[in-house]
Amino acid sequence: MAVIAKIEIQKRNKSRYNVFLTKGQSVEYALSVDEDLLIKHRLTKGLEIDESTLIQLIDEDEKKKTYNLAINFLSYRMRSVHEMKQYLEKKEKEQKHINEVINELLQQGFLNDEEFAKAYIRSKQLTLMKGPLKLKQELLQKGVDDAVIEAAMASFSEEVQKEKIVTWLEKQQSKKSGKVSSKAFKEKLSNQLVTKGYSQRVIVEALQLVDFPEEFTEEWEAICFQGNKMKRKLEGKFTGWEYEQRLKQQLFRKGFPMDVIEQYISEGEN
């Protein structure tokens, strides 16, 4: 049986206390405890403490450290249960303490995968224009259950998706270069939306809702730029009919309509 000789508050952490025990004629540092445990076990100078109580205090304090780590991790943003488990394991906390702390956080409402998924979807929609396929992939990586994700996605209907895409497309129109065809520009935007996680069907339907002004002057400038580049590559290699067909094919692949291609070639001949 040992006796508490003194209790000192830590200099760097005012919520933790160092406990010293009398052993024989000497006073030795025994352990440090959180303020909550100090109060719970009524630790004071002169209190007798046996080995089993000492072991219990150490165990409870380790759990308290695990809990404090978890709360600090949550202070930056919401976390999924899987994220929290991975974080505490990385910090080399005992598995029993991890499980106990996660259960407490679930009961207290600090961890909730349903709310986490909803908040994650809202946040990414606003900041990164991410679509449902991308969001689902990311939530699965964070350990959120598939059924929970599907329920959270209910607020992100196809109509909402199309509204967001249309707004985004209208903003992109000002970025169109005079060096590419309108068709190529639309294909570029469509590919970007696929990368962001939207389905091809929703993208196509949204594109039909946007009025893309296809001014002839702009299209003509683009075909002249691309056509002159292609001519320099083809001249010297091909002549006559073969030269003209190859030029047509390459311009068509660049997204220019055939009537504009024919006019460009006709203008060139004249």
TrEMBL record:
<dbReference type="Pfam" id="PF21982">
    <property type="entry name" value="RecX_HTH1"/>
</dbReference>
<dbReference type="InterPro" id="IPR036388">
    <property type="entry name" value="WH-like_DNA-bd_sf"/>
</dbReference>
<dbReference type="InterPro" id="IPR003783">
    <property type="entry name" value="Regulatory_RecX"/>
</dbReference>
<comment type="function">
    <text>Modulates RecA activity.</text>
</comment>
<dbReference type="GO" id="GO:0006282">
    <property type="term" value="P:regulation of DNA repair"/>
</dbReference>
<dbReference type="InterPro" id="IPR053925">
    <property type="entry name" value="RecX_HTH_3rd"/>
</dbReference>
<keyword id="KW-0963">Cytoplasm</keyword>
<dbReference type="GO" id="GO:0005737">
    <property type="term" value="C:cytoplasm"/>
</dbReference>
<protein>
    <recommendedName>
        <fullName>Regulatory protein RecX</fullName>
    </recommendedName>
</protein>
<feature type="domain" description="RecX second three-helical">
    <location>
        <begin position="112"/>
        <end position="153"/>
    </location>
</feature>
<dbReference type="InterPro" id="IPR053926">
    <property type="entry name" value="RecX_HTH_1st"/>
</dbReference>
<dbReference type="InterPro" id="IPR053924">
    <property type="entry name" value="RecX_HTH_2nd"/>
</dbReference>
<feature type="domain" description="RecX third three-helical">
    <location>
        <begin position="218"/>
        <end position="265"/>
    </location>
</feature>
<comment type="similarity">
    <text>Belongs to the RecX family.</text>
</comment>
<dbReference type="Pfam" id="PF02631">
    <property type="entry name" value="RecX_HTH2"/>
</dbReference>
<feature type="domain" description="RecX first three-helical">
    <location>
        <begin position="67"/>
        <end position="105"/>
    </location>
</feature>
<dbReference type="Pfam" id="PF21981">
    <property type="entry name" value="RecX_HTH3"/>
</dbReference>
